[in-house]
Amino acid sequence: MVTVKMLKPYYIKADADYVRVILAYQYFSVIINQKVYQFIPVEAKEIRIDRSTRKVKNLDANFAFQKDKDVVYVSMSELISLPDFIEQLHAIAEPYYKKDTVNTNDTKDDSAVIIDELEQMNLKRLIDKALDERDQEAFHRLVELL
After folding, report:
1. Do residues 140 and 123 both lie within one domain?
2. Tell me, what DSSP letter sits at residue 3?
3. What is the CB neighbour count within 10 angstroms for residue 127?
4. What is each CA distance from 78 to 17, 83, 138, in whole angstroms?
5. Domain that holds residue 65
6. Percent of the chain scoring above 90 in pLDDT
7. pLDDT-based confidence at 102, cuts 50/70/90?
């Protein structure tokens, strides 16, 4: 079982398309089988995130971690399956993401309208069902919600 103990960037580079979280010694550590392993920059040294989609792009990267003389390699695909890793990574990269507020608000408004319509349709179906089953109590309760 792998869990992230600490994830801090050594520094962050942002270009037009990607946020690059550069890692170094003592800034990234994981716990594997209740032992703390420190990141060592042997293979992969950065996490590359698309600024628009907010997805990690270098999924083929392998990160090396060391405890005494024991070195363990953890793939990026394994790391992104850890909720605490994703949370910490997005918290680090959040200021560098591209903002698309107009589109996001429109999508939220559209979703709310669709959900309201579906709830109303479901309520009407439940009223029809109560009428079919001659369940007066359920009918009156559902009509109040409408």
Report:
1. yes
2. E
3. 18
4. 24, 11, 49
5. 2-96
6. 60
7. very low
Q: pLDDT of 51-101, one tens digit each?
A: 999 999 999 999 999 999 999 999 999 999 988 899 999 999 999 998 764
54 and 73 share one domain: yes
Two tokens, residue 129: 């069902």
The residue type of 109 is D
* Cβ neighbours around 56 below 10 Å, total: 21
Taking the C-alpha atoms of residue 32 and residue 54, their distance in angstroms, rounded to an integer, is: 27
In whole angstroms, what is the distance from residue 21 CA to residue 45 CA? 9
Which token pair is 15? Answer: 């270009």
Domain count, the chain: 2
The model's pTM: 0.64
